[in-house]
Structure formats: structure tokens, C-alpha cells
């Protein structure tokens, strides 16, 4: 991966920093309690702006989540499905008093605007892909709220220091307008910052300048991080990603995040018939699960045993031996610092093999790695 400088207009190919050369220190900036935090540039995220007085009723008829009670300065997650009930986009929706924003994979933004707009008849609603003109930066780590409060001037919404998951506010940083909302994708405090692309460099620089300012307790430790460190933390926290852990061929029931994206008590929406039919059947053909080796596994800490994306997942028969046919494949994997460097992964697995405690085998580069299905996607939580 390559560096996509904050504020860069070019989004094609979604260039992104893999690492600044110190993955361990970058990861520690997310997890370190006290005065540390990390800043993550996100040119791979796209933005859709939604305006018009009918935006909430219109979208409530199209998306999978209940939106009619979505208040200003709140956020909510939802899927945008096609008629076959497959996922066209995984959305994080931020509602403001006068407009709304979608955060989504940048590669889905243009198609989402086109397909949603095709259903507009006489409603007062306008959708625009503003991924080139707007840019997203994130702060992660225990000191993120403290840094943001010191670096910003509050405008409206939820006060910065009181931002809880699902809340948002408008602020200025370096005299630049910024929308901030709380999304703890790493399991630690996470603050998403949305601004004009032309303002991103000034915001980035101001965050570092404020972090370095002297104080009685010493300066805050702000460190830029790349994809690698953030990816470790998001897998530990149980945060799957669209186009990586599930994708456009997936049904909502296969994602592992059904409850946070789909309402089963709201009215009709596109693809609902497929979703409802799947729900009535009781289970999908496959589902995303979290896999971890036994605690006493001699290979669970060896990097040679870490599986890659696409590695086969095999079932065991009644005698505990490996069955011949794969039952799934790894979608993401990492070595978890919070779990003693143990190898952990997400995998799409046939439903019959997804019960918590199920013993499976993953084909790793160095051999067959015993794994156990966890009861949730999250491997670790901040106490």
C-alpha cells in the first residue's frame, strides 16, 4: 500500500499507508492508556452527502435499519441491499440538523448514489458523492477525546468530551469546519473527523501541534498509524469490513453484524423479502465467525502459522480427524498483542460449523492449525 496524503483529491485505487515503519509502536498508540493516541488517515473511505426534507422517510423505505427516529447528531449503521437481498453497501449514517452523511467504502460511493437516486420520484432529497471534495481522518486511543477537546472549538451537537458511541458534533479545528462522531472500531475510543479535502492538511497539522504543547502532565503522545496497526486492533475488537470479511455477494445474515444493521420491526425496504425469508428459515448457508487457537497450542504464537486471506477452513469428524472437504475460508487474520501474540482470524464458514466451541482446522503456511469458534466476533474488550 502507498501513502495517500491527507487532503489528496485522488481517491482511485484508495492509496493508504500500510505502516510508517514501526508497527508495534503504532499499535501501542491505539492501546496505550494515559496520554497516548493515534491518528489514522483514511483515503479509502468514501462520503455521500444527503440533503432534503424527505431524506429520512425516503431512506427509511430503502435501507435495512430503522431511521424514522434518527435524531440530529446521532449515527446509525445500515445496509443498502439490491433486489436479490445482497449487500451493495455497508453504511454508517450521520444525521445533522440540515443534512446527512454516509461513511462507506470509497469504491461503493458512486454506485450507491446512482442506485439510490434511481428510486427518487417526487421526494425532496438529493444524494451526492462528495468523496473527492471531503476527507476523513480518525483518532484512536484513550486520549483521543482529550486531544480533540484541546484542539477544537465547539459549534453544536454533543460536547466533545461527552461524545459517546453513536453521537456527533460540529467543531472547528484550525478554523476549519469539521464533523466529529464517535465510532470505536478498534475497541478503544475512536473519533471520526470529516472535513473538506482542502482543509485536511491544516487539521492534521493542528492536531500534532496541540499534542506537542507543554502541560503540567506533559504533552500528549500523538502518533500517525497505518493500515497494519489499525487492522490488528479492529480484528481484536471484532470489527469486520465490507469488501474484506463480507461483500456484494453476501446476505445480511452472513455478516456477523446482522443485529446492528437490520431492523425486523420496520416497514418494507428493498431486498426485505429475501432477508425475511432467510430469517424465517432460521439460518443462512454460511456465517462470519471468529476463530482462535487453543490457549495451549504450541504454534499459536508463531508467525509461520498465521493463515492468509483465503486459507481453507476444515471441519473435524467424530474422531477428531480432519474431514476432506473445506467448510469455509479465512477472510482476515492477525497476531493479537492483547492476547499474548496469539493468532486470531475471521472466517466465512458453513453454518453447520459455526456453533461456539466448534473445533475446526485452518490450513496455515506451516501446517494445519487447530482453531475454535468464538461466541462473538470480538476477541478483546477494554475493561
In round numbers, the mean pLDDT is: 91
**Helix content percent band:** 10-25%
Estimated share of beta-strand residues:
25-35%
- Estimate the global geometry from the Cα principal axes: globular
Structural class designation: alpha+beta
In order across it, which strands form the biggest sheet?
8-9-10-11-7-1-12
User: Helices and strands, in N-to-C order?
Assistant: HEEHEEEHEEHEEEEHEHHHEEEEEE
Major β-sheet profile: 7 strands, mixed
For the secondary structure, the number of strands is 18
N→C terminal distance: 33 Å
Q: Any idea what the radius of gyration is? A: 21 Å
Low-confidence stretches: 1-12
Counting DSSP H or I runs of 4 or more residues, the number of helices is 8
Model description:
- A hairpin with a 5-residue loop joins strand 3 (74-81) and strand 4 (87-95).
- The strands form three sheets. Strands 8-9-10-11-7-1-12 form a seven-stranded mixed beta sheet, with helices on both faces. A six-stranded antiparallel beta barrel has the order 13-16-15-14-17-18. The chain has a five-stranded antiparallel beta sheet with strand order 3-4-5-2-6, covered by helices on one side.
- The relative contact order is 0.15.
- Helix 4 (144-151) crosses helix 5 (200-211).
- The protein is 18% helix and 33% strand.
- Mean pLDDT is 91; it is low at 1-12.
- With 383 residues, the chain is an alpha+beta fold.
- The protein has helices at residues 23-31, 55-60, 109-117, 144-151, 200-211, 227-236, 258-261, 272-281, and strands at 36-41, 45-51, 74-81, 87-95, 100-105, 126-129, 134-140, 152-157, 168-173, 176-182, 190-196, 221-225, 286-292, 312-316, 322-336, 342-350, 359-364, 367-373.
- The longest helix is centred in the middle third of the chain and has 12 residues, at 200-211.
- The chain is built from eight helices and 18 strands.
